[in-house]
Structures are given as C-alpha cells and as structure tokens.
Design a protein that fits this description.
The protein is an alpha/beta fold and 442 residues long. Helices cover 27% and strands 26% of the residues. The protein folds into two domains: 7-91 and 234-430, 3-Layer(aba) Sandwich (Aminopeptidase); 93-217, Aminopeptidase i, Domain 2. The strands form three sheets. It has a nine-stranded mixed sheet with strand order 1-2-3-13-4-14-18-16-17, sandwiched between helices. It is an enzyme of class 3 (hydrolase).
Amino acid sequence: MDMVNTPAENFNKQLAEFIDGSPTPFHAVANIATLLLEAGFQVLSESEDWTLKQGEKYFVTRNGSSIIAFVAGSEDLAESGIRMAGAHTDSPCLMVKPQPEMLNNKYFQLGVEVYGGALLNPWFDRDLSLAGRLVYSDVSGQLKQKLVNFDEAIAIIPSLAIHLDRTANKDRTINSQTDIPPILMQAEETTDFRELLAQHFLSDNEKVMDYELCFYDVQGAAMVGLKKEFFAAARLDNLLSCFVATKALINADTVSTSVLVCNDHEEVGSVSSVGADGPFLESVVDRLCNELCPGERASNKARVLDGSLLISCDNAHAVHPNFADKHEAGHKPELNGGPVIKVNSNQRYATNGVTSSLFRQLCDQVDVPVQSFVTRTDLGCGSTIGPVTAAKLGIPTLDVGIPQLAMHSCRELTGALDPERLSRVLTRFFNQPGRLQITVGG
C-alpha cells in the first residue's frame, strides 16, 4: 500500500488539521462553519425569518456545539426527498467541574467529571491541555462568550508506580473521583481557577462568569505503520465522520436537497436541546419544507420524509488482532476494508434491508468496498444518532461507520484509506438525482 500523493493521503492531511484544531465540540463546529463559509455557504439564524433560494447553500448552528448545513436543491422537494448525513461532535473526555480547585501535598489539581463512556486507562501519563468555551462579563457588564485553548501541555495524570501497587498489571481499577484529577503545578496555596482563566484569556476588568472546558491530549494526528496505512488521532469517534460528511456536502451539486447534521451530546444519550433527541433537526426540516414546498404543509412534509434517507455515520468496531474472539464470526470489519454497515435487530442501529441495499448500491457506483458488523449476541451493543433521529422524524435510516480500533480511548486508530472512501460514497449519495426508493413487487 503506497500512500504517497494519493487522494487518501491528501484527504488525511486535511482531516488531521481539522481534528487537531477541534479539541471540543465548540471548536469542531467553528471549524466546520469555516469550511462551509469558504465553500460559499450562507449563515442563517434560528431567530430570524428564512428566505431560501433553490440552488443556494446554507448552515445554522445551535449552542455553538451543533450544526446543520444544507443545499436547497433545484428538484421538487416533495418528489425527490432529502438526502441526510448525520454525525456527532462530542467525544468522551474529562470535563472540568464548576468548583474544581484542589491542593493536595502541594500539588494544584483540578477536579474533573468523566463525560461519556471514556476508556480511562489511556489518559494516564499523557501531555494534556485544556480547551472549551468561556462566558465572561466585559468592562460594560455585558455577557459574552469566546472559545479558548491553552494550545500546549499544562497538565498530566501520573500513574502510580508499580512498586507501590504490585498487582497493577493484574487488577488495577480506576476510581473516577480520586484517581484522575490532573496535576497543573506545584503550589503552596490554592489558585482561583476563574482568575487563572481570566489572566490567560481576558483583558483587564473582564470577569469569567462560567465555562465548559475539557482536557485533551496534545499529541497530534499522525500516519503510522511501516507502510503508513494507519491514521491515529484523538476524537476519531466522531470528528472523523463530521469532517468526511462536511467534505461530501461541500462537493455536492445543487440538484438534490442535501442536509448535514452534526449533533452534540450523542455520547451521553442525545437528550438535549442540541442532541439528536432534541428539536433542532426537526425544526430545520420543517422550515425547509415550508420554504421549498409550500402548500399543505403536513402532507408535503410526510411526502418529503417518505422519499428521504438518513445515513448516520459513526465509527464501527474493527476486529482487534489480540481480541478477535470479541467479534461475531463472519462480522469482523478490517481497517482499510471500506465503510461498515452496522446492524442490530434490537434497533440499537437503524439499518434495515432496504436502507442497507441502497448504501451497498452507492458503494458499488463509486467502487468502494463495503463491510458489515453485528455485535456478538452475548455482548452489549452501543448506539448512535441513527435510531434516535429515525424515531423523531420517521425517516428511513441506516447506520454506517469507518472501522476503527481503541474506540473511546484518548487516542484512536483507523485505516488510512477509509475516510476518503466514505466521503466519496456520501458525495455520490448527495448527488443521486430523483427519489431514493426500492420498487415493491416482483
């Protein structure tokens, strides 16, 4: 596998820049917005009336952590439906608590809360930085917000030496309250964290009111392996899908109406005003239908959704060579083996035979291999925004993902070929004219 000057290599360089610059959902949405603006998309506000024009491209954000972008296609919306691709902007991490200051044996530490189902062991002995959103009061007393990032290693969570825990390699467990507060510095007395933030990020007479900050590993994305066939980075689940789908939408033509939705809070259940189980996407779809197919609104919306398709993109579990028995026989996705169709009869994934067939056809059309995954019956199965969105909108849906290893670690691994492949499939999906359907009957 020679990755030099290939479409995949060029794609991965852009992917690495995006992931390294997006340590939080707020930064991810800001960077997606920048890519869209550069591609000619126009900014909309939920608080204003929309006047949409066919052939134009738009996006809207909510809370700075979720974003929906769309192309208002020239085809009759009620006849052709909407092509949707979905992903999520959040990843498991360590969030700073509201009153986090700790002084233990002359070490200044911050209390953290585990966000999502994080794999905690890899967080030890990493060079950590801190990023997120500040809300502050300016000199006139007006509340404002800004994205912040220390951009360098300012903290670490040292492991306990094996000499002090001889059974560490056998049965060490992690107490998420006491074992993982990061060390920031040595100190004789505690430091007010809000004042520390103000010193670094605000001007004189500005005051930190509150924040949403998380630690992240400063090691950047990299191509690894003797043949550079692997791509390693933080937050591949699911910034990889966000970037892949964004690039596909940018490459979409203006014939079909195409939508990209990147929701926050998937890792904690999606139940929020900006999550997939909230009203954000449904609100945008309603406004799209009202603008692009006025008339009997309820009837038109039902027709639109019946002819639509949502591809929920969230990474899949590749087979681990050291733990291959954790996979169902016959369902062992490989890195660089192509995107994976994820199936679960208990509706943890929203795929059915019709939607999976449509995706397989798209892959065939652009010469991309496709794999499938179903979890072992005796193991639990994760979920995605797919079933949640399908239930909210009643839209035909399937779940797909790029295979990866080390899911929910602070550093994850995927194949170097697969991100560009999935973006190619999604571009074909967005550019597929006419109504997406399978004819009933023999």
